[in-house]
Specification:
- It is found in: Cytoplasm.
- It comes from Pacificibacter maritimus.
- By secondary structure, this protein is α/β, with parallel strands linked by helices.
- Helix content is 36%, strand content 16%.
- The protein has helices at residues 19-30, 89-104, 118-125, 132-140, 168-171, 174-192, 217-231, 248-251, 262-272, 308-329; strands at 8-11, 36-40, 51-54, 68-72, 110-112, 146-150, 155-158, 198-202, 235-240, 256-259, 278-282, 288-291.
- It starts with 7 loop residues before the first strand and ends with a helix.
Length: 330
């Protein structure tokens, strides 16, 4: 029998959010093109969901297209759409850890994570991490990871993530930018097959400092760091004025843009493709994608949640897994 690559593990995320709903929609819309299974409590799925419980990930291949394979993970309580339950907080955390165990043991090819409600996890289970990304890094035993948002027209990486704007200038350091560049380049080569990625670096300040008139970081250290890395073979552009690097013509000149802070990166990609953006964690020893939206508690249970971003995240996880497998066979 031909060996089949392990399927993608999809975590349930916040049970009271739109995660269960879009998972049920995705399995119907994707018509079997990506093998994946959902880890969670079947009681949290919409009542009309067609699902089949499996005992092990590989059994997802035996489930008919359009039927959601469910690796059961029972929670203490049912889920009420739009109303988070502190009792279920630890279950959400445990599902993420279970997915990591499955991918680390080769039973899953990658992880796609549904959105979590960070405050509920903190208040209900003392969740000590700013978000998914940091928790996954801890589970993987790595010190530094990079968040990339991707759609068909743009890839962006914020070098600093969930911090206040007033703290960016202190935390956006030469060490942080260099490590972000190295991790980004390595993953684009490994998982996207781009031999020498073209990387655009956004300046920290308006107009990239305009020769020191609007800030000095570009002159003080960014130019020197980028020149040093260019000498090591990196294809780097910048520091570029952030307000002119995201229009359609400018985007053709690079494969990924690295930005100084969260909104500098996320505003352009969410403007270009709000529904189809995918969150990818670079620097992990396994593949992890996530839809680029939150729990959307305000519309949960109404049947109107858009599954496009989840579908794109599952597609991307599978494409990355296939490309990585091909490269390892060379």
């Amino acid at each position: 029998m031909q060996h089949r690559r392990p399927p993608i593990a999809l975590t349930c995320g916040e049970p009271a959010g739109v995660g269960p709903e879009v998972a049920a929609k995705a399995i119907l819309d994707m018509k079997g093109r990506v093998p994946f299974f959902w880890i969670g409590d079947p009681r949290h799925l919409p009542v009309q969901t067609s699902f089949a419980e499996i005992k092990a990930p590989h059994e997802a291949y035996d489930v008919p297209a359009g039927v959601l394979p469910v690796l059961c993970h029972l929670f203490p309580a049912p889920a009420e759409a739009g109303v988070a339950n502190f009792a279920n907080a630890q279950g959400v955390i445990d599902v993420i850890a279970r997915a990591v165990d499955l991918v680390k043991t080769g039973q899953a090819s990658g992880i796609c994570t549904s959105p979590i409600h960070k405050k509920i996890l903190k208040d209900g289970a003392d969740f000590a991490y700013p978000g998914h990304t940091e928790y996954l890094a801890d589970l993987a035993g790595v010190d530094h990871v990079v968040m990339m948002l991707a759609c068909s027209e743009l890839r962006v990486v914020p070098a600093t993530i969930h911090i206040a704007l007033k703290d960016v200038a202190d935390q956006f350091t030469p060490e942080v930018l260099e490590e972000t560049i190295r991790i980004t380049a390595n993953d684009l080569t490994q998982h996207w097959g781009i031999e020498r990625p073209r990387i655009a670096i956004a300046g920290l300040n308006p107009h990239a400092g305009e020769g020191g008139a609007m800030g000095s970081e570009e002159l003080d250290w960014m130019n020197g760091l980028l020149d040093t890395l260019r000498g090591q073979g990196f294809d780097l552009k910048g520091p570029m004025p952030p307000d002119t690097m995201f229009h359609a013509r400018a985007r053709q000149a690079y494969d990924v843009a690295i930005c100084a802070y969260h909104d500098q990166a996320l505003i352009p990609i969410k403007t270009i493709d709000f529904d189809g953006g995918v969150n990818v964690t670079l620097g992990l020893p396994f593949i992890r994608t996530s839809p680029d939206h939150g729990t959307a508690m305000d519309i949960a249970g109404q049947g109107i949640a858009n599954p496009s971003s989840l579908i794109a995240a599952l597609d991307m996880a599978w494409d990355m897994a296939e490309r990585s497998a091909k490269d390892s066979d060379i």
